[in-house]
Design goal:
Layout (H helix, E strand, L loop, with lengths): L11 H14 L8 E2 L1 H8 L3 H13 L3 E3 L5 E3 L4 H25 L2 H16 L4 H19 L2 H21 L3 H19 L3 H29 L1
Antiparallel strand pairs: 1-3, 2-3
Helix pairs in contact: 1-3, 2-3, 4-6, 4-7, 4-8, 4-9, 5-6, 5-8, 6-8, 7-9, 8-9
Length: 222
């Protein structure tokens, strides 16, 4: 069946790309692992051409890199990259929180409050609290109405997730993060741009310190 005009066919390269990207972001493919075209083609039952195309796309996203003597490797995790990612995240989210405090609709505020209630009930479940936290940040971006800012953050979310997944967030940190989220929402609901910006900046940098500590411990143990 021929796809409708304007509808892009899901190609073999798309399949390989999405599969490898998910495996890299989830750390199923660990940092530094070599990716061999022939082995990947055999594993995914495709020719080498879509594998090559997929690796090229991943290279453009800096999720893989070329080795100094050739070969393609999963991009390593390192402290400087982590610092840069969180500085970018802090800048983008600070602007969005500030704008949300000025432009959030009653429906946006109600959705934020509902997500906080769900988060409080599920604090003992790490995956759920992380999912709800991500949804809350999405609502803040939407309420801010700065679409370019949201697009820019989406470009680095995969990289951020690779670091976050290392941390196995503790129960005490989940409680702290919940309190930080409540502070952010309270500032937005109070229409206080300065407080909203400060609250989300402190939240992002607290998350950075948590992940940084785990990465340092990982590097020390290596």
């Amino acid at each position: 069946m021929t796809p409708a005009p304007g509808v892009r066919r899901y190609s073999g390269a798309d399949y390989v790309y999405s599969t490898l990207r998910e495996q890299i972001i989830s750390l199923e493919l660990p940092p530094g692992q070599r990716l061999r075209e022939t082995a990947l083609a055999q594993q995914m039952k495709v020719s080498r051409t879509p594998v090559r195309e997929a690796l090229s796309r991943l290279l453009s996203e800096n999720l893989v890199e070329q080795g100094p003597t050739g070969g393609t490797f999963v991009t390593p995790l390192d402290l400087e990259d982590l610092r840069e990612l969180y500085l970018i995240r802090s800048a983008l989210e600070s602007v969005s929180a500030r704008e949300a405090a000025q432009h959030a609709s009653p429906a946006d505020l109600a959705e934020m409050a509902d997500l906080l209630e769900q988060m409080e009930r599920l604090l003992d479940r790490e995956s759920e609290t992380h999912r709800l936290g991500a949804l809350l940040h999405d609502v803040i971006f939407r309420a801010a109405g700065i679409h370019r800012s949201d697009e820019m953050l989406r470009q680095i979310r995969g990289h951020l997730h690779r670091y976050r997944i290392l941390s196995n967030q503790s129960a005490s940190r989940r409680e702290e993060a919940f309190a930080e989220h409540r502070h952010i929402v309270d500032a937005i609901a109070s229409r206080d741009p300065d407080a909203a910006e400060q609250a989300i900046r402190e939240h992002v940098m607290a998350a950075y310190q948590e992940v940084k500590a785990h990465l340092q411990a990982r590097e020390s143990a290596a």
